[in-house]
Amino acid sequence: MQTRKPIVAGQFYPGQYNLCVDEIKECLQAQELSESLPDTLVGGIVPHAGWTFSGDLAALVFSAIKQQHEQVNTFVIFGATHGYYGQSPAVYDAGSWITPLGEIVIDDELARAVLETGTAVNDTDAHKSEHSIEVQVPFIQYLFPGAKILPILAPITENSIELGTAVGGIIGSDEGRKIVCIGSTDLTHYGPRYGFTPAGVGKEALQWAHSVNDKGFIDLVLELDTQGLLDSAAENCSACGPGAAAAVVAVAKKLGKTRGVLLAQTNSNEVMLRKMGATSADSVGYAAIVF
Length: 291
Description:
single chain; alpha/beta; Protocatechuate 4,5-dioxygenase, Chain B; 3-stranded mixed sheet; 9 helices; 12 strands
């Protein structure tokens, strides 16, 4: 049986069981849910930086799902494509993934159903060096013991919209299980380090990245505008995983949702100032959204 071992444990999040659980608890306690939630949640968008920077927001999304649904059978996790250049979404179809919290099983039945739609390809190798899905898995293991996962890399193409629509159709016809979809993306990577400084450098430029560029992308997500968010990311460099966002938004639309709920928005510079008392010339945006 194929097994994917962690590649960023000890870097993006703790590599030891006890330390990992302790940090998950800290993330879960960091922010309280302040928004009214729909009775039923079908998906969410989470950031995927190191937990120090974005773990609080990822935890907020999983907390919201836990609050509304005590049990989830499977999480479909749409990942960003930092090193995968295929045009078709890539499914990890069978076996298991390992994290410091142990083993989590792939939902191979759901994988087969997705692959049968023709909207994705089976490519486990594509997942070997991608971290955007891995950093979510310990939250699922801690909050939803026994849940399965289906990892799918979602490229920045309209194929990811088609994938999400197909997955939504599968979920809608499966009345026996609770399946929730997660889209993993960070927002604007701004500053000299990232070679993206259209508003210059300094405090006002970083504020532009947060209040204008990130907000523009978030608004399109909340409006469930799949094509618009892909176009915005391409034109404005406002997200690194827009395919993942488009896929989960397409799922939400297929399942009858009409709008998303923004739980929180921040950026790495705000987190640095709050936790470390320092700032940087660069910043990465993060958002927590549910549908």
